[in-house]
Design a protein that fits this description.
With about 260 residues, the chain is α/β, with parallel strands linked by helices. It is built from 7 helices and 5 strands, in the order ααββααβααββα. The chain is globular, with a radius of gyration of 19 Å. The two termini are about 25 Å apart.
């Protein structure tokens, strides 16, 4: 979003949810036994002067929107101050609002619309993305859609979990029906957005980018095993580890990551 690495931004740890504001982290002078004494501290906020894609597109006359997990700080370090005009979610929480994927949520603290029943937060976001695109179908727009799935706490629709349970039990790497159900929620809402682009006649004039999480260690090359009691989670290749899937609709070929993602 900034064109900078996390090291350059000095945001190498996910600490945007903490209350302490640290913008100029310093080198440690002491540390717990077994830890490097000279380890640098970490920013807990994205500085307000940081130039983002939101600023770039807003300055070029685009309608801009951010929907989903921000985790780069509490007010005033929120998307509205980084070039995003329309924001749903986008607060400093490390996971879904109020630490639950299913509503209702407090509209004031979550920055989510009031809902009926208990929908999944990403279903709400997906609907909001479609509504934004529909409103601005005749305008250039830039949307940062950052779903809360897949993340702790591990929650999904019980009926969908049951659908995956038999397949999860016999799979080599996919042994968590809960995780599979959460991935399905993510996939369904990406599909919802792509279907809306087709319906609005915008597909051929839209670039879709699917970024992945950067690797934190060499362990990214192997499946995650027995994570928080879920059993073997999944094989996280090939889209884990600084891969970027860029889909230019209308071209004959996408890159390898896109082919896998599809």
């Amino acid at each position: 979003m900034t064109g900078q690495t996390v090291a350059h931004l000095r945001l190498t740890q996910p600490l945007g949810h903490v209350r302490e504001v640290v913008l100029d982290p310093q080198e440690r002078t002491r540390a717990a036994p077994g830890l490097p004494m000279t380890k640098l501290e970490n920013r807990t906020r994205l500085p307000l002067e940081t130039f983002t894609l939101g600023n770039l597109f807003q300055g070029a006359g685009y309608k801009t929107a951010f929907l989903g997990k921000w985790h780069l700080g509490h007010d005033p370090y929120i998307p509205e101050n980084f070039g995003f005009e329309f924001v749903v979610g986008g607060r400093g929480t490390p996971g879904p609002p109020q630490n639950r994927f299913f509503g209702p949520w407090d509209p004031e603290t979550s920055n989510l619309p009031p809902v009926e029943g208990s929908p999944n937060v990403d279903d709400v976001l997906g609907d909001q993305v479609v509504e934004f695109m529909t409103r601005h179908r005749n305008d250039p727009f830039f949307i940062a859609f950052w779903p809360y799935n897949v993340h702790a706490p591990f929650q999904a629709d019980p009926e969908v979990i049951q659908q995956f349970r038999e397949r999860a039990d016999r799979a080599d790497f996919q042994q968590s029906a809960i995780m599979a159900a959460m991935v399905k929620t993510l996939d369904d809402n990406v599909g919802k957005v792509m279907a809306a682009l087709d319906e609005l006649g915008l597909t051929d004039n839209t670039i879709l980018i699917f970024p992945s999480i950067p690797p934190v260690s060499k362990a990214w090359k192997t499946p995650l095993i027995h994570f928080q009691g879920l059993g073997k989670i999944a094989q996280n290749l090939p889209t884990f580890g600084n891969h970027r899937c860029v889909d230019f609709q209308g071209l004959e070929q996408a890159n390898d990551a896109c082919k896998v993602a599809k």
